[in-house]
Amino acid sequence: MRYSSHITFNSIAQYRRFKPLVDAYPAKISCGLRVNPEYSTVEVELYNPAAPGSRLGEVDANFIEGIEKGFLEGLEGIHFHTLCESSSFDLEKTLEAFEKRFGRFIPSLKWVNMGGGHLMTRKGYDTKHLVELLLAFRSRYPQVEVILEPGSAIAWDTGILLATVLDIHESRGVKTAILDISFTAHMPDTLEMPYRPRIRGATDPQEGKPGYRIGGVSCLSGDYMYEYSFEQELRVGDRLIFEDMIHYTMVKTTLFNGVRHPDICILHVDNSLELVRRFGYEDYKNKLS
Ligand SMILES: Cc1ncc(COP(=O)(O)O)c(C=O)c1O
Asked: How many domains does the chain divide into?
């Protein structure tokens, strides 16, 4: 509460439990509830907060019951978050579903938080359309403040993970370039989502070009990406550049099994490299004991 102007609760039960604490706090904090519009353009379940049975937010039936029973006294805001790396057109469809279910409650509220997942810094994102959508929303509900909480958009495509080839391993015709980084430890989304990272200068398999699986350095058998093609044969000591590795990739890294964690550096415009953080065995040891 010391740091919050607004607090969004994930369930009516949590709202009822903690609202008295917020009310008793000396500073004014505006309370809201997360709702589930049960619509999302995100198809992968891991990234879909509106998937059936989702634990994220209240569905409209619960919300209506909460209102009827007087459980939502003092509610000032409503929050939904069902986008992920999405366009303004995805937001448009989501808003339609959200307003269909919750629109009649909006006039009694002070704010609507449309969550994150608005990838407004991606090339081609139609910011003009986003602004039009938000202005139209405001004109339908003039008393309501609109909040957006984009996360990854702030750091989209802003940093790389630099890896070195340690070995070329061959098994019955499958060549794997083993790197000094790990997919499970340093790019877990590549296995969880899964998504295929971009490697500078490499493509999906192409006839006639040298192809390699890309192997992580951990003990996990599945710690690899299927084949990429390169312009030239890879050699021990070659550097590979993984693109767009700053936002969730960097925050989700682990020290799994003591695999060495990459340094965090800033490459300045004058090409000087500033070391921000180097991780060592002590970090791994201190995390566990
Ligand atoms: C409630 C909520 N708001 C905002 C965000 C930020 O989303 P993004 O980084 O996709 O913009 C997240 C991410 O999971 C979230 O769960």
From this structure: 2
Residue type, 120: M
Dist CA 159 CA 141 (whole Å): 39
The closest-lying atom of ligand 1 relative to the alpha carbon of residue 83 is: 10
Q: Output the six-digit token pair for 158.
A: 């802003």
Distances (CA, A) of 156 to 30, 102, 113, 237, 249: 30, 32, 22, 29, 11
24 within domain boundaries: yes
- pLDDT tens readout for residues 1-24: 999 999 999 999 999 999 999 999
Crossing angle of helices 88-102 and 127-140, rounded to 10°: 20
d(CA 23, CA 30): 9
For residue 147 and ligand 1, the question of a CB distance below 6 A is answered with no
pLDDT digits (tens, 9 = 90+) for 134-179: 999 999 999 999 999 999 999 999 999 999 999 999 999 999 999 9
Q: Are residues 70 and 16 in the same domain?
A: yes
Residue 150 CA to ligand 1 centre (angstroms): 6
